[in-house]
Amino acid sequence: GAVVSQHPSWVICKSGTSVKIECRSLDFQATTMFWYRQFPKQSLMLMATSNEGSKATYEQGVEKDKFLINHASLTLSTLTVTSAHPEDSSFYICSASPYPGELFFGEGSRLTVL
Amino acid sequence: LAKTTQPISMDSYEGQEVNITCSHNNIATNDYITWYQQFPSQGPRFIIQGYKTKVTNEVASLFIPADRKSSTLSLPRVSLSDTAVYYCLVGAPGGSQGNLIFGKGTKLSVKP
């Protein structure tokens, strides 16, 4: 199957700093990628749809100025959590698909804001 | 987007067959049913997908009745490593499938 990879797997940062998470499609091109957030013992929540070469589409309630998404190439999307606070601590997951019918997810990135 | 309802949790023992049922009363004509598995601190992994009747692959079977308002994921002879959360998703497989809504999922615990 297709491979989607995230980096870093985990990151710890101080409150007020910004953190960037990368999502790469390793063996296919992805014009669209998706970002999710998952809090402990909860389900995945779609945050935004990342579109190559255009602005991301954010779900209701997700602050676009806080969660900056850039999809500059067909294999890379980045999520930047700006001015992170402890409540932003979560598990962030991306996904993409080389063809209709099946989504491939990254390994996830665990963010801890102190 | 069709909403899904699954049991919150299920317990089983090694070697047993496990059936997890998902209700999706508002499924649309062009919607497919897809099941994903998620281990702690990992991204979800595709298990199986179907439209109607029965689909089987090397890890599971998916049973879908004629009215398609529910589906059942069947895991034959589970092992401890099958302990995970299982999500049932409903949606059209083409286009921007990522906007599928994840429900609460079913936490399966397999005991020795």
Features:
heterodimer, A: 114 residues, mainly beta, 4-stranded antiparallel β-sheet, B: 112 residues, 9 strands
Question: How would you characterize the overall build of this protein?
Answer:
The model of chain A has no long low-confidence stretch (mean pLDDT 94). Chain A is globular. The relative contact order of chain A is 0.34. Chain A is 0% helix and 51% strand. Chain A contains no helices and eleven strands. Chain B has 112 residues and is mainly beta. Chain B has no helices and nine strands. Chain B has strands at 9-13, 18-23, 32-38, 45-50, 53-56, 61-64, 70-75, 84-91, 106-111. Chain B has a five-stranded mixed sheet with strand order 1-9-8-3-4, with no helix packed on it. In chain B, a hairpin with a 6-residue loop joins strand 3 and strand 4 (45-50). The relative contact order of chain B is 0.34. Classes of the chains: A mainly beta (114), B mainly beta (112). The interface between A and B is medium-sized, with 29 and 24 residues.
Please render the helix and strand layout as text.
The complex is a heterodimer of chains A (114) and B (112).
Chain A (H helix, E strand, L loop, with lengths): L3 E4 L2 E4 L5 E7 L6 E7 L6 E7 L5 E2 L8 E7 L2 E6 L8 E7 L7 E2 L3 E5 L1
Parallel strand pairs in A: 2-11
Antiparallel strand pairs in A: 1-3, 3-8, 4-5, 4-9, 5-6, 7-8, 9-10, 9-11
Chain B lengths: L8 E5 L4 E6 L8 E7 L6 E6 L2 E4 L4 E4 L5 E6 L8 E8 L14 E6 L1
Parallel strand pairs in B: 1-9
Antiparallel strand pairs in B: 2-7, 3-4, 3-8, 5-6, 6-7, 8-9
